[in-house]
Structures are given as C-alpha cells and as structure tokens.
Amino acid sequence: MKNPQLNSNGELTHLLSIEGLPKSIIEHILTTADAFASVGDREVKKVPLLRGKSVFNLFFENSTRTRTTFEIAAKRLSADVINLNINASSTSKGESLLDTVDNLAAMQADMFVVRHAQSGAPYLIAEHLIRTNAQHIHVVNAGDGRHAHPTQGLLDMYTIRHYKKDFTGLTVAIVGDILHSRVARSDIHALTTLGCPEVRVIGPRTLLPSHVEQMGVKVFHDMAEGLKGVDVVIMLRLQNERMNGALLPSAQEFFKSYGLTPEKLAHAKPDAIVMHPGPMNRGVEIDSAVADGKQAVILPQVTFGIAVRMAVMSIVAGN
Amino acid sequence: MTTLPDAESLCAALLEQLRPAVQANTVMIGVHTGGAWIAEKLHAGLGLKSPLGMLDISFYRDDFGRVGLNPQVKKSTIPFDIEDAAIILVDDVLYTGRTVRAAMNELFDYGRPSRIDLGVLVDRGGRELPVAARFIGAKVDLRDNQSLNLARDGGGRLSFSLVEKT
Predict the structure, then answer these.
(1) Chain A residues lying within 8 Å of B60, measured CB to CB
(2) Does the interface predicted TM-score (ipTM) exceed 0.90?
(3) Searching chain A, which residue's CA lies closest to the CA of residue B66?
(4) pLDDT of the residue at A249
C-alpha cells in the first residue's frame, strides 16, 4: 500500500504518523532539528526558509503547548501563521471538515497543522487535498484522537538522543494511561524503528490496550518491577477527558500505584531521565519532587519541540 | 583546464595573502563543508586568538523552493560576538556568488560586523551576483558542466577532483 506521507520519490511530504516512516527519514528529521536548535540561541531567531508561505494551525481540539510551539516554529521559519480555533467557529455553525479545508485552501494555504479528536482526520484531509488537486498543501498531524502525535514522538526521540546519544543500548519505560495515549503509540513506533532494544509499558490493565505486546513492548503492571534498570522514563498524563466509565477507582489510588515518586524512580538507573509530554497532573501521575527534580527533562522537551517542528515543517515544505 | 589545481599549495598561498590583513578584531568563519576544512588550516596558520566559526547556509539558500532542504544540514556555530568584528569568510570555490549571498544574510542575523572579506581557494568566474573575493588562491577556467570538488583524506590533506556532468 502506498504510504500517503511520502511522495513518488519516497520523500516526506506530509507528516501523519511515525508508523511506517523509514529510519532514515526519522534520523534526517532529528539531525535537521539539531541544526535548527542552534538558531534558537541566536540574536535573530529566524531563518528565511518559509518566507511568503502561509501555515494554518487547524486546532479542532484544545491545546496550548503544541499550538504555541508550532506557531513559534513557523514564525522562526518566517512563515505567516494563521491560528484557527475551530471549536469556536465554523463547525459549530454546521460546516463539514472538508468544506472548512476547501475554504482554507482557497485562501492559498501552504500547510495545515491539524489537531483533531477523531483518529485519522489528518489522513482524511491529506487524501482530500490530493483528490482535489491541492497536493501542494502539506499536512502535519499535531495529534489525532488516540492514534498518533508524531511531532511529540519525534521531540521525545530528540530528547532521548540529546541525553543518551544512542538508542541501541537503551531500556525505555512508558508509564500510565497507554490506552488513551497517542503519544505512547508514536513513541513506541519511533523507538522500535530507531533500534531501541527494550520498550516497556507500565500501567493498570484497564489503561493498557489489549494486545499491546504486538507492538513489540514488554508489559508490566508493577512500577518497581517495570522501572528496574531503565534509562528513560516517559510519564503520560492521565486523560480524564477521554475516560468514559470507571477505568480507575480514583486519581489518588492511581498515584499510589503508578504515580512517579522519588522512591519509585530509585528503581531506575541513577542517571535515568524523566520525561512528560505535558500538561502534568502533579500528584496524579507524577510527584512534584520528581517533576522539579534533577532527573526531569520536561522543560527541555518543550524547547526541543520548537526545533523539531521547524525541521518537520521545512522538510515537508521542501518536498 | 589542463591540470587540477593543488589544494594544499593554494592553501599555503592564501595563508600568505591573509597574513598582512589580520587585525585585532579579525575572526574567521568557514562555509561547510569544504570552506570549513580550508578555514581550519588558515585559522591555525594565522594563530588567530578567537575560535573558528562554521556556517551551514542551508537555511538561507535561494533554491529551497526548487530543491527543498539539504538532506545533510549541519549546525552553524559562531562562538564569538559578530558585532563590529572583521570577518574573513572562507569557501572552497567561488562560482555564482549565491553561497556567499546566503552566508552574508545568515551572518547579519548574528549581528553587524564591521566588515566581511571573502577568501577562496579557487575563483572559477561565472558570477550571477555582484560578489567578489579579496583573497584568491587561483583563478581557474571551467566549463559550465564541470565542477571542482574538494575532498579531505584521513591525514587531513585537501585535494580537488574534477566532476563533469553529462
């Protein structure tokens, strides 16, 4: 099956999911992000690559961090950025997703950065653009439902590579609400593609997808066991807004078993790093002593996210 | 062109041209990749006190819209303040002048230098922009379909090879 993210030369023209991306493309994005990271240290934090291009941030679902870092990234590439908070506008008036897209294409958009609560929405948009002869417009997935959050996955890989240099000897644990997490899916695909030999998921049975082992991960239900000897701990946010019914007794109960405290973190390697995609629920999935501690790299993740998004946008825009 | 220019002796010639031009505020910046190799030699030969800067001009190229992003972008590192510095910009081959244009645009995003001089190993003519080098190892005539490629071997020796497009 043709990968809709790649053009006929096998180059990245949309970023929809890490699943199915060859290792070479992921590494190319990380290396390019490295070059963009140094632009952030300069007096003038802008390069002229996307001058005259219009990037539309289409956020059908709320987000502050992701939308803001995409906006900063696009502006540092000299693009014009238009932010649309669609919850509050057209859809509530009854316009369909693809009609919204057609209208924005008619406004001479060059790139859509899409976040949507429905898995697959960015695919639908990319395929629609091809069908309507608007394939010059690039689509970047900024999170779709439970499916994928590829730029978060890539910035997580950038962060791990920054601190640990190499993936081939690492053990990485992803902890918490795996079931609802598009970040977990993107991270697992990226880690396995980059050659990370052991990826673990840790969480209660109710928050782990059935057959998650088929993604090539080891499953743990106990923190002490799962964190033993790991190099990287990726904590996930407990996604209250996506939970229907009683998957958990209470947030307090969850913290007791799966909240990352200094005591639980002590099972990991002494130089293990702690990551979190944000926003954090302190006292639910992570203890403040860890979130603000020496091993946390949660704020550097945010900074790296800008460089990674600059890399993604400039690579797709050039293909 | 009958014989290939010898990169090492051109480097030595360039170094002698540069010597009298060094001032108290002189800094050196090489353009990736060939220019950076040459700049390393010149920088050491001149004994400049400020560290060597490196520029990858990929983010400033004027052909991004046609060819996309360079698949091997490196980091630009300018480990000194560019404000009021006298920059010697070093590249391997001066041709259309587009690389130098891009390099100057990037440099001005770091600050306002007092001056920029260009030093190149080879000037092959064919300018498409009003760009000139102050320090030139040699002038060489090449056909449009020919290009000079600089390589560095394991021992750090530089050499040119001629590539012909058919």
Answers:
(1) 47-48
(2) no
(3) A318
(4) 78
